[in-house]
Amino acid sequence: MYQFDYHRPASLKEASELLKNCDEAKILAGGQTLIPTLKQRLAMPSDLVDLGALKELSFIKAEGDAIMIGAATPHADVAVNADVRKHLPSLAKLAEGIGDPAVRHKGTIGGSLANNDPSADYPAAVLALDAKIHTTKRLIEADEFFKGMFETALGDDEIITEITFPHPKRAAYVKFPNPASRYAMVGVFVAETPMGIRVAVTGAGQEGVFRVKEMEEALAKNWSADAISGIKVPVENMLSDLHGDAEYRAHLVTVIAKRAVAAAI
Amino acid sequence: MKSELDIMLTVDGAEERTTVEPRMLLIQALREKLGVKGPHIGCESGRCGACTVLVNGEAVKSCMMLAAQADGAKITTAAGLAAEDGTLHPLQQAFHEHHALQCGYCTPGMLCAAMDLLKTNPKPNENDVRQALRGNLCRCTGYQHIVDAVLSAAGTLGSGASAVKGAAE
Asked: Considering A50, A79, A160, A243, which has the largest number of Cβ atoms within 10 A of its Cβ?
């Protein structure tokens, strides 16, 4: 690791000011991606702003037809929360499938979204459920948030505070995990919400998480695995690496999407 | 030179104060600054779990956390599971009885990951145990004896009551 200064602000305001005033500050939201990145010297922040002391960012609330999750809520909390399990079991299952127990104790939903790893699980849920991302400055729609691999709409001194999920009529997340890392080789989140049907794919796209509108339209007419079995995403947009080439991933998208539709509750 | 930080950790019941660089990992602070050599450094990249400790009761890989983040925290290592007079914790005893280790390198992490499981799920089945130990690698045992030991400690291997005192605390 390169050297950096460490801050543990006691308020969001203090955190925002640190981000604004430091040279090249980065937020430490749980560290399960950032710390390995720092170890490999793939990042060289001047300062780390640890959100670990901001307990007001770690909460899960159920109000009306929505579930609100604080940005610093660890995956382990989402996985076992009674309200999430009741109204959004697909999200609880997603959280339960991230990494391993130790990672889930430290990793946070806000950290995962802000990092926007092309193989991360949460971006698929946020995009498919049409969740709202609240920050220290504004509210960002899911469709406007993800801007490509490791890129988001967040400004340098902007901090995610909360994510609001609607209760879907039915939804499911199915992932084909890399057997070693548990990252998604392909993960598909399908959801029918009051706003419509959405299909979001993670792990496969060169530009990170993406929607498959053709599948959404087919499912709107006929919610069944058969309805999408003939729909294939373009191979040229897929990731290709030693774990699976582009053609394989494109094939998996259809297979996993069908499984997700069949599993949706 | 970046500023150093004064931190305080409670390690296996003992209050410890030390000074760390912001970039120092918790595992480095434990081993190099405080001489706590129970948790091992295996891969140092979050994969192997040999460095797993309990931070405020939750299993965490101490190579995936900065020492500064742990300031004020209560750390329990595998050594801290035993009673003060050295009597093994029932989980440790079960590892011994079931031959759940060969070289022993992964054992401190395995014990902490298993404790974390039994705290939230005192009566796990075999799949629960395997899922809970997913982030801890063992290259000797093939896992079967480790899984047996955890089930035995929980009293869910065959029949019998839980032998793990305090597991539900």
From this structure: A160
Residue A222's CATH number: 3.30.390.50
Instruction: Decide which of B38, B65, B80 is a domain's last residue.
Output: B80
Whether the CB of A89 is below 8 Å from some CB of chain B: the reply is: no
Tokens at residue A116, please?
């926007």
Beta carbons of B49 and B29 less than 8 angstroms apart: no
Q: Is A100 in Cβ contact with B69 (below 8 Å)?
A: no
* Residue-wise DSSP of B91-114: HHHHHHHTT--SS-SSHHHHHHHH
In which residue are the tokens 């030693």 written?
Answer: A242
Residues B47 and B112 in one domain: no
B65, B101: one domain: no
How far apart CA B123 and CA B9 sit, in angstroms, is 31
| Chain B interface residues (partner A, CB cutoff 8 A) | 1-3, 5, 21-23, 25, 44-47, 49, 52, 55, 58-61, 64-66, 68-69, 71, 113, 116-117, 120, 131-132, 134-136
Q: Indicate whether B134 belongs to any domain.
A: yes
**In angstroms, rounded to a whole number, what is the distance separating the alpha carbons of residues B39 and A2?**
24
Q: Does A24 touch chain B (CB under 8 A)?
A: no
Nearest to A122 by CA among A137, A107, A134, A136: A107
**CA nearest neighbour of A111 among A175, A201, A51:** A51
Place of tokens 């500023």: B3
The pTM for the full model equals: 0.93
- Which of A31, A35, A103 is opposite residue B135, by nearest beta carbon? A103
Residues spanned by the domain of B87: 81-158
Interface predicted TM-score (ipTM) of this complex, two decimals: 0.92
